[in-house]
């Protein structure tokens, strides 16, 4: 009887271990499958709602940051984003088309028409500034329809084409210039590499200019208030995929990559934007 009882206990133990192991495997498989099924995208609200792919959102954040750095109104960024969407899908492409075989970059600017060298128009910073240089020369651009203002700069063969991107331009410009608080959310998979606060600071400074910053471990602490704080915070979210950013805190709100539920209430010191990057992934 004792031997039979011992055998029964072993069988029960083995079955229990098998069930636990199966449960763990199922849970891990579910998490992995869930990660694969995530559609990575960024959504902006403010004067409408629109979505962009993560690489488009990152380029949009640069275009908008240049407007903020120059002290231009959000309307300028709206016009620039609608233009870039029509010209390049907000991607830094290295080719033109039949109408402009030498066109290049975010705005499909042509070196033959004085926009700069091929290398310059392929530089998103130069291209954005060149666009704004031309836009601010358009009388009353702030009150013109977006498609009209864009056409005054681009002189396209399709002058009405920019109109179809006006809602996207307004939504992303409103968030990325800081006019709409907690207006940009990106749904992302977990990062596959560690982030670098120095790289985040370098990219952000290139976009906005000097923003006072310090580092606390894996967190970059930026000194910014009001609309600038939200412009910086949304820039960080828009660049979270490329820079392995996992959390952003600003003005009593937080965006967490893992939660995937948008901005939530959180304690954040006044006048700070806190950007946290991922640590080294577990083996």
CA gyration radius, whole angstroms: 24 Å
Shape: globular
* Strand proportion: 5-15%
Mean pLDDT: 88
Give the domain tally: 2
Biggest sheet overview: 6 strands, antiparallel
The number of helical elements comes to 10
Assign a percent range to the helix content: 40-55%
| Low-confidence regions | 23-35
Order of helices and strands: HEEHHHHHHEHEEHHEEEE
Helix/sheet category: alpha+beta
Q: What is the straight-line distance between the termini?
A: 47 Å
The strand line-up of the biggest sheet is 4-5-9-6-7-8
The tally of strands reads 9
Outline of the structure:
The protein has 283 residues and is α+β, with helices and mostly antiparallel strands.
């Amino acid at each position: 009887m004792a031997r039979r009882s011992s055998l029964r206990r072993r069988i029960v133990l083995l079955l229990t271990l098998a069930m636990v192991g199966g449960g763990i495997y199922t849970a891990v498989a579910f998490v992995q499958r869930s990660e694969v099924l995530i559609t990575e995208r960024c959504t902006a609200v403010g004067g409408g709602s629109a979505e962009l792919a993560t690489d488009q959102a990152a380029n949009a954040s640069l275009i908008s940051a240049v407007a903020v750095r120059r002290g231009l109104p959000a309307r300028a960024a709206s016009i620039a984003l609608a233009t870039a969407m029509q010209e390049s899908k907000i991607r830094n492409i290295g080719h033109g088309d039949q109408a402009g075989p030498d066109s290049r970059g975010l705005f499909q600017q042509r070196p033959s028409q004085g926009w700069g060298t091929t290398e310059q128009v392929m530089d998103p910073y130069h291209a954005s500034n060149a666009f704004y240089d031309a836009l601010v020369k358009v009388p009353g651009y702030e009150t013109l329809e977006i498609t009209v203002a864009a056409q005054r700069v681009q002189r396209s063969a399709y002058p009405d084409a920019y109109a179809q991107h006006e809602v996207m331009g307004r939504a992303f410009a409103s968030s990325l210039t800081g006019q709409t608080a907690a207006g940009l959310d990106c749904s992302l998979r977990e990062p596959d590499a560690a982030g670098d606060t120095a790289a985040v600071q370098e990219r952000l400074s290139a976009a906005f200019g000097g923003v006072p910053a310090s580092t606390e471990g894996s967190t970059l602490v930026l000194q910014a208030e009001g609309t600038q704080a939200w412009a910086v915070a949304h820039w960080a979210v828009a660049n979270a995929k490329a820079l392995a950013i996992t959390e952003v805190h600003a003005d009593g709100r937080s965006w967490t990559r893992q939660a995937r539920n948008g901005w939530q209430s959180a304690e954040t010191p006044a006048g700070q934007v806190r950007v946290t990057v991922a640590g080294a992934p577990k083996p």
